[in-house]
Amino acid sequence: MLLVSLLWLAGPVAAVPNVSVQMRVVPATHSFTCRYTIALAADDTATTLVLNLGRQLRIENLLSSGSTPRATRVYYPYFDDTLQQVVAHFSGRARMVSVTYSGTLEGRLFNDRALVFSGHSGWLPFRPYRDYEVVNYVLEVQAPAGYQVESASAEAEQRAGRWTFRGRAGAIEITALVAREFQQLASAGAPRIRVVTVGPALTRTDTMLLRKAEGIIAYYNRSIGQLDPITRFTILLPGTNSDAFGMLENATMITYTDFDVAADREALLILAHEISHKWWGYGNVHTYNDWLNEAFATYSSLLYLREAGDEAGYQAELAKRAATVGNAPPIRGFDYRKYPRPMYRRVVYNKGTVVLAALHERLGTTQFVRLLGAVAARHVRDTDTLLAIVAQNNGQATRDWLLAELSR
Ligand SMILES: [Zn+2]
User: Which InterPro entries match (predicted)?
Assistant: First the structure.
């Protein structure tokens, strides 16, 4: 099996790492065994490859094209916890590490119907401070008889209890939803939007969710996504009731059991926020550049509210956030390690949203939306690149104004 993945990993030159994940899941005990193999892109000449792995995972085997990797324990500030770190050194051209490990899902990641292996499940290794780097992947999931597997992409090969998915995703966002039964609702036309839910029957709430997602995606595709539109999208609803998150790979996981976009403005904003992470997911989550993800996603959701005719809602949601930023530190250079956790939301989400609203006001809707489209298409990772795009599109004075807003 490893030989097969190595041959595949040695394939055509790619700018991003190639990852192969072979997972066997045991639903009865919520446990799993994984073989994770990463090969660096041919143009990546690093002589060392470091992988972080959750503290709770049991490493069973380590292989590498270089020196025999070692695993040590290190502190990872982002988790405020220790984890295991695997380090391999290379001398030749091949840069590949393979880790075999087993683990058990935490209680918030399963219910009596489904098991969630995804962005917040801590089930995959990742390079330090590159949790969300884009990788090409092949995911193979082996599940016992009577179980099905779903992922972000609809296309899967299925053979004798094995599901294979291929795609391009954030490193820790590779997703497998395992359940006895799925229900699916899909839009009739393009883009193809799917609502995938776990359980015996679809409800009216699922239909409403699909309709709202169609409206949100149609709006985004003619605004922030005008240069890079969504052509397919998957909404996964495992019903485990812990959180919601968007993924680069045209998908979102919404676990809330009472999620009703027709009844609740909060739910509608969450849906719009998470869908927009398809574009807003390239900023480094370990630095203040996370505002490029979270403030942009939050402001995109507010723009949708306004587009849908809820001007009062737009104003109220903006005012709610503005009220929290009074004496918050500057966005530029904000270091989450130096503040209590709640400050993160005030600076990176709320203050960032207020700055974007002010930029919107300054530029007017036509220019502002065109700027968002340009930023989205460029997969901007850092604020200096954003400032350069603003200078190019909107002039030096606006660029200097934005820098001042981010610095105060
Ligand atoms: Zn977000």
Answer: Peptidase_M1_dom, Peptidase_M4/M1_CTD_sf
Looking at the structure of the chain, the number of domains it has is 3
Q: What is the pLDDT of residues 314-356, one digit of tens each?
A: 999 999 999 999 999 999 999 988 999 899 999 999 999 999 9
Residue 281 lies in a domain: no
More confident residue, 42 or 11: 42
CA 277 to ligand 1 center in whole angstroms = 7
Quick one: how far is CA 290 from the chain centroid? 12
Question: Which helix (DSSP H) or strand (DSSP E) does residue 73 occupy?
Answer: strand 70-76
Closest CA to 318 of 284, 359, 261, 286: 359
Confirm if 234 and 213 have CB atoms less than 8 A apart.
no
Instruction: Choose the final residue of a domain: 246, 275, 304.
Output: 275
- What spacing in Å lies between the alpha carbon of 346 and ligand 1's midpoint? 13
- Residue 280 is assigned to a structural domain of this protein: no
Helices 204-221 + 265-276 axis angle, to 10: 50
How many angstroms is it from 64 CA to the middle of ligand 1? 35
